[in-house]
TrEMBL record:
It comes from Thioalkalicoccus limnaeus. HAMAP family: LeuB_type1 (MF_01033). InterPro entries: IsoCit/isopropylmalate_DH_CS, IsoPropMal-DH-like_dom, Isopropylmalate_DH. This is 3-isopropylmalate dehydrogenase. Its cofactor is Mg(2+); Mn(2+). SUPFAM superfamilies: Isocitrate/Isopropylmalate dehydrogenase-like (SSF53659). NAD(+) binds at residues 76-89, 282-294.
């Protein structure tokens, strides 16, 4: 039976980069027999403008009914004056929580052709292959109470709450150990256990889960040090597991090790292995509408979709190899340009990846 993919282009550069991923999916279907069908729905600012809500019920229902979801990005200055409850980003968070997508896998892999595109010295990043496992449906982005209230003095107070249950920590740690077993068997749990009780519990549970994986070496690091170590010596890491906000921040930093935030894909999985796939970057309003955004993070997210949700590992490998060939040809969007390479736009890059697909 053909697999159902829901396409959620979103805002800003979202529609531009997703168009390239759709071209790729069409080619995989028509040329390589990947059995899939696509449908589209609104999310984010585009959905708010059309319906007054960033996650219309019909979008959530369509997402629930699909095997996999491909999302571009949401948000932008146009919607910043709106209350947080109806901002585009709330649509994305609603999809994550509504589908129970608690496990966010963010691989930071340096294509060797891009060593010169990184802002770090080549020897620091060459051969980089790390995986950030970010908890995605809990923590401070979802904790209650939240909001802004007014104290008796008349002063306003902003509140967000960092909260995790043991079971939430346990299941994300288990994902990290399971993937580490398929990799180099090292997990570094990142927390702020010296200050935050919630992450003291995180550390305790990470140790408890680790006892079931005697072949995996578990280490712990405070998040401030982890940020520094990621830039100083990123290859010391194999799998990093951390909470929602720390993972959000550390993965943007890790993206630059690979040359650009335009290179980092992600998979967000639930307990049933249904997945949403998206680049880790945002809607890039500063370059939206110019046809210059890098579509490779979205294209590599399609590869993750093929591997994790569509059971098409061969097609996934085909996409990753095609990206490598295009980089070998010296084609680069502006964010990964380096001396001796040729600047192309979003569509030219997408076309080149499709053209580079091989049997
Ligand atoms: N998953 C999502 O939908 C996310 C949405 N956002 C939203 O996106 C909007 C912009 O957020 P920012 O903080 O500016 O982060 P951003 O990731 O959109 O952009 C940061 C910088 O990276 C560049 N960039 C991002 N993606 C790129 C690509 N594919 N190719 C080339 N350059 C790229 C942008 O031009 C910008 O200079 C906000 O409304 C934010 O809330 C932010 C992060 C994730
Ligand atoms: C709405 C934000 C939490 C999105 C984001 O920055 C991310 O998931 O990386
Ligand atoms: Mg982010």
């Amino acid at each position: 039976m053909s697999k159902k993919i829901l396409i959620l282009a979103g805002d800003g550069i979202g529609p531009e980069i997703v168009a390239e991923a759709v071209k790729l999916l069409v080619a995989l279907r028509d040329r390589f027999g990947v059995d899939l069908e696509m449908d589209e729905a609104l999310v984010g600012g585009a959905a708010y403008d059309a319906t007054g809500h960033p996650l219309p019920p019909e979008t959530l229902a369509a997402a629930r009914a699909s095997d996999a979801i491909l999302l571009g990005a949401v948000g932008g200055p146009k919607w910043e004056p709106l209350p947080i409850a109806v901002r585009p980003e709330k649509g994305l968070l609603g999809l994550r929580s509504g589908l129970g997508l608690f496990a966010n896998l963010r691989p930071a892999i340096l294509y060797p052709q891009l060593a010169a595109a990184s802002t770090l010295k080549a020897e620091v990043v060459e051969g980089l292959d790390i995986l950030i496992v970010r908890e995605l449906t809990g923590g401070i982005y979802f904790g209650e109470p939240r909001g802004v209230d007014t104290l008796p003095s008349g002063e306003r107070r902003g509140i967000n709450t960092l909260v995790y249950t043991e079971s939430e920590i346990r299941r994300i740690c288990r994902v990290a150990f399971e993937v580490a077993m398929q990799r180099n068997r090292r997990v570094c749990s990142v927390d702020k256990a010296n200050v935050l009780e919630c992450t003291e519990l995180w550390r305790e549970i990470a140790i408890e889960v680790g006892r079931d994986y005697p072949d995996v070496t578990l280490s712990h690091m405070y998040v401030d040090n982890a940020a520094m170590q990621l830039v100083r010596a990123p290859k010391q890491f194999d799998v990093l597991v951390t909470d929602n906000m720390f993972g959000d921040i550390l993965s943007d930093a890790a993206a630059m090790l690979t040359g650009s935030i335009g290179m980092l894909p992600s998979a967000s999985l639930n307990a049933e292995r249904q997945g949403m796939y998206e680049p880790i970057h945002g809607s890039a309003p500063d370059i939206a509408g110019q046809g210059v955004a890098n579509p490779l993070a979205t294209i590599l997210s399609v590869a993750m979709m093929l591997r994790y949700s569509l059971d098409e590992p061969e097609a996934a490998g085909r996409v990753e190899a095609a990206v490598g060939r295009v980089l070998d040809l010296g084609l680069r969007t502006g964010d990964i340009l380096s001396p001796g390479t040729r600047r192309v736009g979003t569509a030219e890059m997408g076309d080149a990846v499709v053209a580079a697909l091989r049997d």
